[in-house]
Specification:
Rossmann fold, NAD(P)-bd_dom, alpha/beta, NAD(P)-binding domain-containing protein, four-stranded parallel sheet, 10 helices, NAD(P)-bd_dom_sf, 257 residues
């Protein structure tokens, strides 16, 4: 079925008597969003309001989480981004997550829907087979004994967070929302490591873990519609949820590899 099928989504809530909903469904590839904005908007924006409206109509819902993204912030000079920074994404994927974020908060503030929002840094981990992403793409190149490719000039700085830390973040946020709906409903939380690295540093870290330090990456300097430096402050999540990333970049990459 499709996330944009409103009748199907509402039936899922009813048939399975959903109490907790974690909405992660999305088109997540920036490159695909640039090439095909309309399907991205259909999935990420329309799909989100359909899920949120089904949740509004289903009386059994007790708590809900919606995944936004650090990309919703767009480009800002002041780093790291806190949750109070304006959402001003300019490009298709960024705008699609910005809209998802704002629609979720609309349902919380207007209809009292018990929904909270996650804004996660760049996630990586086992099972990600999107070879256009820097971590799986570089690891595949290393395994195939090929030089890894960096699409940018290697200098863009990002915060990379291991998927197990994000799973724990989602569970902790849902649990806190269940305990105190008023304190967390309509709230957005950043989740990252507070330790950003450049694209070149990320590739070098993977090469170091693989033991193949003699390979030199190919730097294409061809990335478009991407923000130069973007990373988050996770201070609010630590203060209000007790969450903090547990995996270092080295440990997360080692487990992924």
């Amino acid at each position: 079925g499709s996330i944009t099928d409103s009748d199907l989504v509402l039936r899922v809530f009813s048939d399975y008597e959903i109490q907790t909903c974690i909405h992660l469904a999305a088109q997540t590839a920036v490159g695909i969003a640039n090439r095909a904005p309309v399907p991205t908007f259909e999935t990420n924006i329309r799909g989100s309001w359909i899920v949120l409206d089904a949740a509004r109509q289903w009386p059994g819902l007790e708590q809900m989480l919606v995944a936004s993204s650090d990309k919703a912030y767009g480009a800002h000079k002041d780093l790291p981004y806190s949750e109070s920074v304006a959402l001003q994404g300019d490009h298709p994927y960024d705008v699609s997550k910005l809209c998802t974020d704002m629609i979720a908060r609309t349902y919380a503030n207007t209809y009292g829907l018990p929904v909270a929002i996650t804004r996660c840094a760049n996630m990586y981990g086992g099972g990600d087979l999107n070879w256009n992403r820097i971590v799986p793409g570089t690891m595949r190149s290393v395994i195939n004994r090929e030089p890894p490719v960096i699409r940018s000039d290697g200098k863009p700085k990002r915060d990379y967070v291991y998927v197990q830390d994000i799973v724990r973040a989602c569970i902790m946020l849902i649990e806190n929302l269940a305990k105190d709906r008023d304190a967390h409903s309509g709230m957005a939380y950043n989740f990252g490591t507070d330790d950003p690295v450049t694209a070149l540093e990320m590739v070098e870290s993977i090469l170091d873990i693989s033991g193949d330090n003699n390979v030199k990456p190919i730097i294409q300097n061809a990335a478009s519609n991407e923000i130069q430096d973007q990373y988050l402050s996770s201070k609010l999540a630590e203060e209000r949820l007790g969450w903090k990333a547990e995996y270092s970049l080295h440990d997360g990459l080692l487990e992924t590899f």
